[in-house]
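so the lab meeting is tmrw and i was supposed to have these ready like two days ago... anyway. pasting both below. for each one the top line is the aa sequence and the line under it is the structure tokens. i havent really looked at them closely yet so no promises
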Amino acid sequence: MQALRPETTAVAAADAAPLRLTLKVHNSMAIVERDWRHLEADPRNSL
């Protein structure tokens, strides 16, 4: 297996950074939505 040149690794890491951030935000939103639905489903929390 060919070793990656340092500049290639740096570029790949830079490309992956925004994707990781996007996934992190997406996961946080999914957790909030799940919790919100759980609260909505609870009759004690009826608005």
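ok protien two:
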Amino acid sequence: MLSTTCTPMHLLARRLCQTPDNYVVRQVLYRLGFADQLWRSKNFGRTGPFRFDISNLIEREIEASRQEDLDFTCMILVLGKTGVGTSATSNSIFGEVKSKTDAFTPGTKRVQEIVGTVNGMWVRVIDTPGLLVSSADQSLNGKILASIKRVIKKIPPDIVLYIDRLDTLSICNGDVHLLCTIRDAFRPAVWFNAILVLTHAASALFDGLHGIPISYETYVSQCFQMVQKAIRQAVGDMRLVNHVSLVENHPSYKTNRAGQRVLSNGQTWKNDLLLLCFASKNLAEANSFLK
């Protein structure tokens, strides 16, 4: 099993300029090792403790790095309210304009599949029209979600990105109702396989409660908790915890020496977001061995 899960995870991390010491990589490898132990015990009886053969991985890594593209594909479904940057995030993932965007009107009019390579890895993004929170627009939301279901019927997405804005985030009853509509369309499991993406992460932020200035990290934490609480209400599981990723899509925002877009703290957000997506796919494949 490790030949089809652990090794690709290392290769993917390397393509995304991440090391085995990365927290996400280490957590994935730990869980893959545990799954491998269960699988071997189930099929071959008792086995010894899992040991990670790093030398063998390095040899495979060097061999695979000689290939231009890896034998790997990840399908990502992008969902969000209109105006939050769903299409802009899709474009940023590929590093080029694949989907039309507009600052004042919805840029994406229909569900569309965008396919391309990112650092030698195949990525398929299902870009979708923005959803609306008004109760008067629920019929339109239903039509959009129905068209999404038709597109992903044959090939389910590996991960779902639910996108909202960090700089203007507010949660109302309409938001919770929208999350419930998404739940009903795709079943509650959709939220157990979702990453919360907050765009406009480099924008000037508002003060906290009562006008008292707060740190950037505190503001992000408060926003994440608001959305997470709404998702938990929609799912009916107060234990659910989703990963969160900060995104800045503005084309003129700063980059590092490698030309990668970075946040104010120097984080290369695209690589970190893709690592979360690829890690989720690897873990899902590992779990399938245990069924």
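from a quick look at the 2nd one: Residues 2-69 form one domain. The helical segments are 6-15, 23-44, 54-65, 86-94, 138-152, 173-186, 216-235, 269-289. will dig more after coffe
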